[in-house]
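Study this pair:
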Amino acid sequence: MIRRFATVALAAVMVACGPQASAQQPVQLTVYAAASLRSPLEALAAAHGDVAPGITMTVSAGASSALRAQIEQGAPADVFLSADTTNPAALAEAGLAAGEATVIAGNRLAIIVPIGNRAAIATPAYLGRAGVKIIAAGDAVPITRYATELVAKLAALEGTSTGFTEAYAANIVSREDDVKAVVAKIELGEGDAAIVYRTDALASDAVSTIDIPPEADVTAAYAGVVVGSSAHQDEARAFLDWLDAPAAQAILASFGFAPPP
């Protein structure tokens, strides 16, 4: 009887331990993220690994709109982090996300020029001057929508010349795939100015910034979702929720991001 009881008890322990052993298996999350989040995610992934051992991440960074399109076409992502709320919300509305979009951070805009400022741009109003070469992103990229909002606010300021919005648009000489590519063109001196995220301006030693009047300031909201087709939804949700934790927010702040607006 004692021997039989011990055998049954051992079997029960093995059954109980089975799911735990499975839960401890390494999990690799694939994170699709806005280009402006590439550097912060390296630090975030390392810090998350400290609180969730066994969870590693592969990051694919690019234009939020392009990443969303890839997910819509079946790309195997677990988490999508966008430089806006529109793209994640669209996935949720299409039934391609597990849950609603979660705002994870804020950002501001910056007007950058190459070091040396060869075009002698002194104020945002100079973006409408003839001959100024402006680098921008594609129409579907979130930074373009934010830039359009900023230009509209600048146009409404007292002292801004009539036709500023149209003059700014006429000065765009190149449209790039994402904001990192925009910054790279300015760093190389292939353009005179660009509107980018403040975090990208802070990360570059090859550009300087032109002050934006407070009344024209624009705040960008970054949001994320768990991709509906993810095979690791619990781990993906835990990571997305963790991004609101003080440790994660401190890392984002160190790169120039603001708390969720």
